[in-house]
Amino acid sequence: MCIKVSKQLSISSWNVNGLFKRISGNRVCKLDDDNICQIMTADIVGLSETHIPTNEILNYDGYKCFVNCRSSDSNKVRGGLATFFKKEILSGVKLMDKTMDDIMWFKLDKTFFSFDRNVFLCFLYIPPSNSSYTLRTNFDKQIFEKLEADIAKYSISGDVILMGDLNAHINCKELDFITNEVDDSLDNFLPTNYVADSVCKFRNTQVHQKTNNYGKLILDLCTESQLRILNGRTLGDSKGKITFYNHNGVSIDDYCLCSSEFLPNIVNFSVGQFEPTISDHCPISITIHSQLVNKSCDNYVKPTLRRVKWTTKREEIFKSNMLKVNFGTINSDVDNLTQKIEANNTCNSNVTQSVNDTVSSISSILYNAAFLSNTNKTPGKTKRSKRRKIKKPYYDNECESKYRSLKSLTRKLCTEPWNDSLRHKVLYNKKELNKLIRKKYRQFRHKMIKQIIDSNNSCPNDFWNTIKKLKKGELQGS
């Protein structure tokens, strides 16, 4: 027999401040970092500000990547998007549009994912309004005009989801919807088919921020297209967590917006952990109800029962616990049950219920005596703390200690985002860690080169053995 099981689809977005970083002149990919691997478990992952050229090919095991690189006349590459889809869902995904820099549209097929309508997913990055690129190209005006046109086009045949770094600041008191309250003054402005929203919850933000120009444009887009901001009003982010940390302060720059009719499909929205070694932005993620899959009952795995390795000491504890039990009530129940059975009332449903209750009571007594009162842990495999895999030979205990200190401060900062001194301390420690890693890499490289030269002069066999021991890319720091 098969049963229908609802599957959930996870989507993540992260401004990574460049997918590659430099260590003593060598290019290192952040996709190999354990911290970024944590979000690369989602079904769909959108990375912004990748800073990769048009000829760059990105590969990640189990995923297919779509890129939209920003065209540039200079050698310095900025912006750029990279979107990863798990290969098992590729048949339900179609690239719709990437004609403009820093914006990509995909269609999630309603039949494949069992949606009521097709879902049009957009990953985008809107550069700051005061950046040289925006001022030179007037990009902000272009991208908002395209957004408005695309949303109007795709909303006709499906629901819309927008995710990315919008560089928008929106005050939580600013509404992104029109209430159900009757206002005659709006009759001449709203279309006749406009349905007022019944959003039951206003948004929250962890810190106060004023609405900037981008924020006003986003709010206008929401009210016109009936999109809703998920930050600060959804399960998983009821507080409206910070998504951006730097020396100047903290703010909420990364958003997820979706069609109001699609809100019942949203399971949760969350803001990930701040990882200063990767980016000054936090990743954001949503989980949505997806396809119904057939699951065979034959594949049902019976839950593992709790087991005890019996010892003499445990036997004595069990006996001691049993002596503390008051069996008066149990004896009385058993006597009453015996009388009912002897009275030939076995067909009575009350007798069956009494038997079940009595057996359950006795089982509970035995279980409590064996487990709940036994404070000794079962001998066996001890749970080991998870340690990061150190992939770089130059990354020693000193680097790891400094990294863990930085992580501890970062976790504290996430609970106290308004603490300016703590924020500056985190960013300072991040800078010091990067300096230390570069220093260790230079020392390692110098040591290996010296070892190769010495072995070449003394013994050719040692020279080639040293070369063979080096894994590919170790001298390049990747």
Automatic annotation (TrEMBL):
Keyword Magnesium listed? The answer is: yes
Site location (Interaction with DNA substrate):
281
InterPro entries, A to Z: AP_endonuc_1 (IPR004808), Endo/exonu/phosph_ase_sf (IPR036691), Endo/exonuclease/phosphatase (IPR005135)
Start and end of every Endonuclease/exonuclease/phosphatase domain?
Answer: 13-281
The entry's active site is 125, 165 (proton donor/acceptor), 281 (proton acceptor)
Q: Name one GO biological process term.
A: base-excision repair
Q: Which UniProt keywords apply?
A: Hydrolase, Magnesium, Manganese, Metal-binding
Q: Where is this site: Transition state stabilizer?
A: 167
State the source organism's domain of life.
Answer: Eukaryota
Site (Important for catalytic activity): which residue positions? 254
Cofactor(s) needed: Mg(2+); Mn(2+)
Residues binding Mg(2+) are 15, 49, 165, 167, 280-281
Among the entry's GO cellular component annotations, what is one?
Answer: nucleus
Q: Which reaction does it catalyse?
A: Exonucleolytic cleavage in the 3'- to 5'-direction to yield nucleoside 5'-phosphates
According to the record, cofactor stoichiometry and binding are noted as: Probably binds two magnesium or manganese ions per subunit.
Q: Which GO terms describe its molecular function?
A: DNA-(apurinic or apyrimidinic site) endonuclease activity; double-stranded DNA 3'-5' DNA exonuclease activity; metal ion binding; phosphoric diester hydrolase activity
- EC number assigned by the record: 3.1.11.2
Please report which protein family the annotation says this sequence is part of. Belongs to the DNA repair enzymes AP/ExoA family.
Q: Know the name of this protein?
A: exodeoxyribonuclease III
List the lineage, top down.
Eukaryota, Metazoa, Spiralia, Lophotrochozoa, Mollusca
